[in-house]
Amino acid sequence: MKKLIVAIMTCFFMVFSLFGCQTLNEKDSKENKTDVVNNESSVNEGQKDQADKADQPDSSSKQQTTDTDSNTNTNHDASDASDSDSDSGSKQKTQTQKKTSRLYYYDVEKEKMFYVDKTVELVDGAYINALTNALKNNQKNEDFVAVNDETFVTSAKLDEEKGILNVYFNDSFDLSTDLDSKIEPKFIESLVNTYGYNYNVEKVALFVNKEPYKNPSDTTSSGYFKVSVDDATEYVKKG
């Protein structure tokens, strides 16, 4: 009897054990399946996040692109400005102007002052230079005292308060004044008359190397020469 009871108990125990193992296996299977699903979901979500990040432009890359565009625009503007300046420089040309002027010459043979009306060409408004260059031409009269070719004016200033035109010459002015003591004062007078008449002033001061020029026959210490055109006669070429 005892053996029968033990056998029945053993059978029940085995049945319950098998049922319990099956339940545990099913539970573990479900949990494992849930974990797999969760892991797959996490993987999918991670891949999705990476894909989203890949689709979105990097902020540093965007900033770099903006800076590059900005630099490109700046260089382009600078290039345009350079071209504009170059075009502007190429359009700047020497300005010339013609002006009728009166030139005074001293005739050595006739010992007389003459004047010639002539149209001179001003370059960039330099009237004093135009007059000086014109005085280098003796108007086909070999008896006229002309300015030496190497002589030129370095600058000229009009003192409106004192009414004096100050004319500055280079060193070669001495070549123009290397004349007879009787002719030199008349040559200076022709210069003074030419500058004074055309600038409408009555006083002209001459300088060489910024030092006042003094005529050897001039005993005055005024520092300037007076314009005197009353005794001049219009020169008419013969033939």
From TrEMBL:
Coiled coil: none
Comp. bias regions, Basic and acidic residues: 46-56
Signal peptide per UniProt: 1-20
Keyword list, A-Z: Signal
Ranges of Polar residues composition bias in the record: 35-45
Listed Low complexity bias regions: 57-76
Domain GerMN stretches: 103-213
Ranges where the record places region Disordered: 28-96
Pfam families: Germane
InterPro entries listed in its UniProt record: GerMN
UniProt superkingdom: Bacteria
Transmembrane domains' residue ranges: none
Descriptive protein name: GerMN domain-containing protein
Taxonomic lineage from the root: Bacteria, Bacillati, Bacillota, Erysipelotrichia, Erysipelotrichales
